[in-house]
Design goal:
The complex is a heterodimer. Chain A is mostly beta strands. Chain A has strands spanning 3-7, 10-13, 19-26, 32-38, 44-52, 55-58, 64-70, 73-78, 87-94, 103-104, 108-112. Chain A is globular and about 40 Å long. By secondary structure, chain B is mostly beta strands. Chain B has strands spanning 3-5, 10-14, 19-21, 24-26, 31-38, 44-50, 56-58, 64-68, 73-78, 87-95, 103-104, 108-113.
Chain lengths: 113, 114
């Protein structure tokens, strides 16, 4: 069966520091991968998605970036964190279409101080 | 592009009472519809989905939802809630044709009290 792993679970980082969040999927090939951010009272915001290795689509311009160095690995990065980057970050995967919905990771709570 | 409106940000209810969480969508093409549940500090878990066929969809934990195309709605219901149902619920939509990402509503917090 397919599983998705996301780490770390919690992270406290100072303003201006770099960020790297990692997400990996097991038990499937060529998944579509997604990064969402969830801020209090604002629902889920799609940040990036990828349909293949090296392919990244950005939904919201900001100081975050994403990379997909391997088929089942998706990384969210920042060179310099802002206070406004605080939130709950969720990774998800799906088949080539969204027909069957997404499967989400357990999330990373990022607090920028 | 599609959009989702969850009309209630918070729904308080007593244990064993029925509940309905409302979801309306907007799209110019046919859609797939989903409900997800999120417990505190956890990821989202799929409750149920409508792809085609019967408009009444049954999901996990005793929840069900009904697709109403004329009213562009996909309301979530449970006849008798438990304390453990306290969580945030998200409605989501994707377009049937071609590649599509999910668009989520802002969520409804279900608060079940004894």
């Amino acid at each position: 069966s397919q599983t998705i792993h996301q780490w770390p679970a919690t992270l406290v980082q100072p303003v201006g520091s770099p960020l790297s969040l990692e997400c990996t999927v097991e038990g499937t090939s060529n998944p579509n991968l997604y990064w969402y951010r969830q801020a209090a009272g604002r629902g889920l915001q799609l940040l990036f998605y990828s349909v293949g290795i090296g392919q990244i689509s950005s939904e919201v311009p900001q100081n975050l970036s994403a990379s997909r160095p391997q088929d089942r690995q998706f990384i969210l990065s920042s060179k310099k964190l802002l206070l406004s980057d605080s939130g709950f970050y969720l990774c998800a995967w799906s088949e080539w279409t969204a027909n069957y919905g997404y499967t989400f990771g357990s999330g990373t709570r990022l607090t920028v101080v | 592009a599609q959009s989702v409106t969850q009309l209630d940000s918070q729904v308080p209810v007593f244990e064993e009472a029925p509940v309905e969480l409302r979801c309306n969508y907007s799209s110019s093409v046919s859609v797939y519809l989903f409900w997800y549940v999120q417990y505190p500090n956890q990821g989202l878990q799929l409750l149920l989905k409508y792809l085609s066929g019967s408009t009444l969809v049954k999901g996990i934990n005793g929840f069900e939802a009904e697709f109403n195309k004329s009213q562009t709605s996909f309301h979530l219901r449970k006849p008798s809630v438990h304390i453990s149902d306290t969580a945030e619920y998200f409605c989501a939509v994707s377009e049937v044709s071609g590649y599509s990402t999910l668009t989520f509503g802002k969520g409804t917090m279900l608060l079940v009290s004894p």
